[in-house]
């Protein structure tokens, strides 16, 4: 199901058929460095992660991570969407892209579309977390209108993260 579209991108819900793409994204050097190793090594594990993660969240909450496709050729380039983490009070904007699609403004374009989708759904506020030093992600969030709010410790076992936020006005 298509959720949003921009001049260059389409965002749609993920399906189990996207397992190969999901497997590729979560094993890129950038994902492993900045987000973490999810220990997903096979398409079967990717299908299970999709079923337990984005597909379940979409069914329960009406939002999740979305597949980002380039409109011009339908190429799957990344994921961007809304996540509700138990460790955060607010809904979180998350994203990850294949490295060959970095530097073209796609992440900012998709983030803006997801924030507009959140606004239309009536969410009053959206946050995002980044690992300190991930300047590229910080720049995407700032270009999408988010601002740095504070350093946050999600759990005793994890290193502190940067919390960005944006207040969303109700749709007009």
Strand content range: 25-35%
Give the SSE order as H and E letters: EEHHHEEEHEHEE
Percent range for helical residues? 25-40%
Classify the secondary structure makeup into a structural class. Answer: alpha+beta
Q: How many E strands?
A: 8
Q: What do you see in this structure?
A:
The chain is built from 5 helices and 8 strands. With 172 residues, it is α+β, with helices and mostly antiparallel strands. It has an 8-stranded mixed β-sheet with strand order 1-2-3-4-5-6-8-7, sandwiched between helices. A hairpin with a 3-residue loop joins strand 1 and strand 2. It is globular and about 35 Å long. The model has no long low-confidence stretch (mean pLDDT 95).
List the helices and strands and how they pair.
Layout: E1 2-5, E2 9-13, H1 19-26, H2 29-34, H3 43-61, E3 65-70, E4 76-83, E5 91-97, H4 106-120, E6 125-130, H5 135-143, E7 147-152, E8 161-167
Parallel strand pairs: 5-6
Antiparallel strand pairs: 1-2, 2-3, 3-4, 4-5, 6-8, 7-8
List keywords for this structure.
172 residues
Task: Kindly summarize this structure in a few lines.
This protein is of the alpha+beta class and 172 residues long. The chain has helices at 19-26, 29-34, 43-61, 106-120, 135-143; strands spanning 2-5, 9-13, 65-70, 76-83, 91-97, 125-130, 147-152, 161-167.
